[in-house]
């Protein structure tokens, strides 16, 4: 007897009914870059269709995000002033802090997540405090606590440490709790690999290291089991959401994490993934909408509950068009 599995593929109606995984605008988070200055909406050359926004122009993009149905944004700030200790990162008048306050004036319908790191704010481009050209873990933790508290004070709903220092989740959780921000949650970049896929982001965030690389704190792409060591540590330290970054080349890690933990799993579909599709589409080699949606669906199928993507607004529109 032939097993006729094609019966469940004969038309859209049956395919829609039996589909195991679907995408929703509720799954998506949109990365947003804010800069100092006035009347700035400047396209990011490495991230086609994404922009640097000044505070006074934020209403335009925030309204667009709300209207799309996307429920959250993750903020990245690019300051005018950089120094060896990244002081603008934890200033109450820092670019992200000002952006948070402005967004909360515009709407109460968006989850405001903030990236917690120092690379955009240091004059050397590394993610922490240097001691003899090596990032000092514990000195960096003190600064990360200050950054997280300053973001919470400004009104952030969730903080997302991306620095990959040991013990950062516990340090941030304790600092937030001590300052009365017990309801500010933590989405930890738990399995963050030292990836070549970050290139376009580093141009967008002006965060390329002035020397060396980040391999002493970000994970080796060859390691799989180590990812769960990082995830388990972050859960024990108080992370509310676990993130895997990048997404597309690390779907196995997303699946491993999803099968072993019960908290929400986020995947960051990074700048290099986005830029490759854009370039291929411009060259006429792929259908941009179809391939972007297939990529995002693969992340959902692998086990991601949340997807951070530069395609968030387009994807939300495409989902509605279906």
Describe this structure in words.
The structure is a single chain. The radius of gyration is 20 Å and the shape is globular. The model has no long low-confidence stretch (mean pLDDT 93). The strands form 2 sheets. Strands 1-4-5-8-9-10-11-12 form an 8-stranded parallel barrel, surrounded by 8 helices. A two-stranded antiparallel ribbon has the order 6-7. The two termini are 37 Å apart. The longest helix is centred in the middle third of the chain and has 18 residues, at 137-154. α3 runs parallel beside α4. A hairpin with a 2-residue loop joins β6 and β7 (134-135). With 322 residues, it is α/β, with parallel strands linked by helices. It has helices spanning 12-18, 58-68, 95-106, 137-154, 168-178, 199-205, 225-237, 251-260, 271-282, 288-302, 312-321, and strands at residues 28-35, 41-43, 51-54, 72-78, 111-116, 130-131, 134-135, 158-161, 185-192, 241-245, 265-269, 306-309. It is built from 11 helices and 12 strands.
């Amino acid at each position: 007897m032939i097993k006729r599995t094609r019966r469940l593929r004969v038309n859209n109606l049956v395919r829609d009914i039996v589909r195991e995984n679907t995408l929703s605008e509720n799954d998506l988070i949109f990365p947003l870059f804010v800069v100092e200055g006035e009347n700035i909406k400047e396209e990011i050359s490495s991230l086609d269709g994404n922009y640097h926004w000044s505070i006074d122009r934020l209403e335009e993009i925030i309204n667009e995000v709300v209207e799309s149905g996307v429920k959250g944004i993750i903020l990245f700030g690019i300051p005018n002033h950089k120094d060896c200790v990244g002081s603008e990162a934890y200033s109450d008048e820092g670019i992200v802090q000002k952006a948070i306050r402005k967004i909360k004036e515009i709407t109460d319908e968006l989850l405001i997540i903030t990236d917690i790191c120092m690379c955009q704010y240091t004059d050397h481009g590394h993610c922490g405090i240097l001691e003899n050209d090596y990032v000092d873990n514990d000195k960096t933790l003190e600064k990360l606590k200050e950054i997280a508290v300053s973001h919470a004070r400004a009104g952030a709903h969730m903080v997302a440490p991306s620095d990959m220092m040991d013990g950062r989740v516990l340090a941030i959780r304790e600092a937030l709790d001590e300052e009365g921000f017990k309801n500010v949650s933590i989405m930890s970049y738990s399995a963050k690999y030292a990836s070549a896929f970050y290139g376009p982001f580093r141009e967008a965030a002006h965060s390329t290291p002035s020397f060396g690389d980040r391999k002493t704190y970000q994970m080796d792409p060859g390691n799989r089991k180590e990812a769960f060591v990082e995830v388990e540590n972050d859960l024990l330290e108080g992370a509310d959401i676990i993130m895997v970054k990048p997404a597309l080349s690390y779907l196995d890690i997303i699946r491993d994490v999803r099968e072993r933990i019960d908290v929400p799993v986020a995947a960051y579909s990074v700048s290099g993934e986005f830029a490759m599709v854009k370039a291929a589409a411009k060259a006429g080699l792929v259908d941009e909408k179809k391939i972007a949606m297939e990529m995002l669906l693969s992340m959902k199928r692998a086990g991601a509950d949340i997807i951070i993507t530069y395609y968030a607004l387009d994807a939300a529109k495409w989902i509605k068009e279906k």
